[in-house]
Amino acid sequence: MDQPRITQAMIDAYDEYTHLTLDRRAFMQKLRMLAGSGAAAAAIAPLLAASQAAAEVIPADDDRLTTTDLTYRGAPSDIKAYAAMPKDATKLPAVLVIHENRGLNAHIKDVTRRMALEGFLAVAPDMLSPSGGTPDNEDKAREMIGQITSDIYGSNLLAAVEFLKTHPNSTGNVGAIGFCWGGGQVNRLATLSPDLKAGVAYYGAQAKAEDVPDISAALMLHYAGLDERINAGIDAYKAALEANKKDVQIFIYDGVNHAFNNDTSAARYNKEAADLAWARTVEFLKQKLG
Hints:
alpha/beta; Rossmann fold; 2 domains; eight-stranded mixed sheet; 8 strands
């Protein structure tokens, strides 16, 4: 059976649903109009969404790694996290992995293992811990993301940096990488933490221009060429970073969509852009963190 044709308008409708409206009924109605029938819409929707069945690139029991669930002290409660590092490693630079607006799911745990295999102590906090943790239902997770205040997120990410600075397997050099919502959190964390040495934001909302002078970390920013919603903020952010002489690299990948790095989403993933961005990211983090 041929795969249904997915148009840019369908991808844009999905992005609007997952980041702005959270109204699945309205999204499916729009998708039916775009696809021509309810049956076609039902076939296309899973291709736009992330497939947890495709989330495991690096097996959870990969014998090259040591993985563990842990907690660190946050505000107002402890934060649960998933950690991975090369087996038998002692001291490593540390990387905070900040999830998308779906919470700490199987895909982000897999990305954490990928980062560990590059030679880092990688820790992915569940930023929904104050609300009981990431639920199985992704729509519920997206709803919960908006119910926790930005101050609590900031406090808990600052606590994560401090936790990684003093972790027994850390060199004390801490960076961060984040995707979508997590990319925005990387930008914000950079304005809050003088101890963050490097931050990589994939298609993340930009920090406020007035907060840019507070950034100490070197930044690498990856953007999708077709991502009009996020890209609207690039020029002002770039101008503020350059005016304040910050260490920043900005890459825009033409012809690809928001979430191009997420290989669990068949319609939006772009292997060429994802591989290039990942190679740049790893080289950058190794250079900045040692």
